[in-house]
Amino acid sequence: MRRWLILVMGLLPVQALADCESGSTQHRAEGRAVTVAFATQPARIKVGEFFSLDATLCPKAGASAVRAFKVDASMPDHKHGMNYQPSVVRKGDNAYTANGLMFHMPGRWQLVFEVDSAAGRERILADYQLD
Amino acid sequence: MSPSGLTLALLLAAATALPAGAGQSLAGFSAEEIRQVLRHGPWPQTVPPDPANRVSGNPAAVALGRALFFDSRLSAGNAMACATCHRPEGALSDGRERALGRVRLDRNTPGLWNVALARWFGWDGAADSLWAFVIRPILNPDEMAATPRQVAELIHGDAALACWHAKAFGPPQGTDPERLLSDAAKAIAAYLETLVSGKSDFDLLYDALAQADAAAALRYPPDARLALFFGRGQCAVCHVGPNFSNGEFHDIGIPYLVAPGRVDPGRHGGIALVKRDRFNRLGEFSDDAAGVSADHTRHVVQNHTTYGQFKVPSLRNIELTAPYMHNGHLQTLHDVVRHYSDLPEERLHQDGEALLKPLHLSEQEIDALVAFLRTLTSRQFPQVNPAGCR
Question: What ipTM was estimated for this complex?
Answer without folding.
Answer: 0.88
